[in-house]
Write a structure and sequence with these properties.
The chain is an alpha/beta fold. The protein has 2 domains: about 5-175 and about 210-250, 3-Layer(aba) Sandwich (Carbamate kinase); about 265-410, VC0802-like, CATH 3.30.2130. The chain is built from 14 helices and 18 strands. It has helices at about 15-30, 45-55, 65-70, 70-85, 95-100, 120-125, 155-165, 195-205, 215-220, 240-245, 285-295, 325-340, 365-375, 400-410; strands spanning about 5-10, 35-40, 90-95, 100-105, 115, 130-135, 135-140, 145, 170-175, 195, 225-230, 245-250, 265-280, 305, 310-320, 340-355, 380-385, 390-395. An 8-stranded mixed beta sheet has the order 3-6-2-1-9-11-12-10, sandwiched between helices. A 6-stranded antiparallel beta sheet has the order 14-15-13-16-18-17. The radius of gyration is 23 Å and the shape is globular. The protein binds adenosine-5'-diphosphate (ADP), aspartic acid (ASP) and magnesium ion (MG). Aspartic acid binds next to helix 7.
Amino acid sequence: MALIVHKYGGTSMGSTDRIKNVARRVAKWHDAGHRIVVVPSAMSGETNRLIGLAKEIQAQPDPRELDMIASTGEQVSVGLLSMALQAIGKKAVAYAGWQVAIKTDSAYTKARIQSIDNDKVNRDLDDGKIVIITGFQGVDDEDNITTLGRGGSDTSAVAIAAAMKADECLIFTDVDGVYTTDPRVVSEARRLKAITFEEMLELASLGSKVLQTRSVEFAGNYRVPTRVLSSLTDPMLDIEEEANSGTLISFEEDTHMEQAVISGIAFNRDEAKITVLGVPDRPGVAYHILGPVADANIEVDMIIQNQSVDGKTDFTFTVPRNDFQPALDVLNGTKDQLGAASITGDAKVSKISVVGVGMRSHVGVASKMFRTLSEEGINIMMISTSEIKISVLIDEKYMELAVRALHKAFELEKA
Ligand code: ADP
Ligand code: ASP
Ligand code: MG
């Protein structure tokens, strides 16, 4: 008998029929003798709908009240799933995050989980119940409801699995695993049987939304065996077959099944670029430009400072597209103090990254990437590298073309 956490995403919970299928799949695992905790997302489209309602009232919604609204989609899901399980003769109980409690900090809309009390859940499991807990939400020390950022149910599930020392966390979603790139963009993308934790962390943080980045961090920090698999197969699929399907996040590099140099390509449309032109090149220039941006809670990603000419330099960096205007506003406020000639920006840029632990022992990955883009006539605006990834910033209109060309150049379709 094992303790297993199942997570079901929005598409998987998308209709009452799909919820009935989730219930059948969960019941199958429970019937096999396992203790099961289920973490569902809101029904597909529901979180967007709720945020849309809030924005009809306040263009920039108050974050605390927004979390009050956005968290409700998951509460509907847990209730419906619990009922669907009861309807097929299972004992089940649904909890909101605060009832467990899943404690977070107070950073509304992007809260971080701090602790999870598993007493109540364990009592219910001892009692033979299937426990269903809302994804995406928690509660802070002042009893305010918080949410964990978009895609946060992945993090709820892995964090619960970590807190309960579960044997496995199964992330059921609308694709049958982690692919070499988003299979909706490249039809030749290939499913990976296993991916190292480090590579998954890079792919997620560089834009692959199949797992929320923080869920991968939890999996790594607490060594939670985590698998991504399909919720759209027959719910009565043989349990052994299901248990070995999808993609396993592995912690051992030598169990990494595919020895490719590159494991995958991630992309992020959600980027914007800002350039501060003609600033006096003296100590503190980066601090004086980026300090106020950081104070406004805006995360900066790629950064380039040009060689100075006549004591003046240009400074370029990227921010999430949502923060483009706020970042420009901050800089326009400090422009005179900086002595900058002008500030320009471009919100139609995308970042593409190739990721792979094999890069450590192979040279030539960067040049192959740059050659491929040049052959497609795609201009690179910025480059950044780390030990296991190379990222480039390009015009967003070439993003899909670039991903396809790189996928082909690195022969990712081949095992
Ligand atoms: P859920 O609602 O189950 O959380 P998401 O939409 O958040 O599902 O994540 C699954 C989606 O992630 C897939 O439908 C796919 O389009 C996208 N995706 C992006 N990159 C990848 C990848 N490398 N492998 C698989 N899916 C990916
Ligand atoms: N419902 C939330 C969202 O749409 C959380 C999740 O689906 O993981 O972002
Ligand atoms: Mg998701």
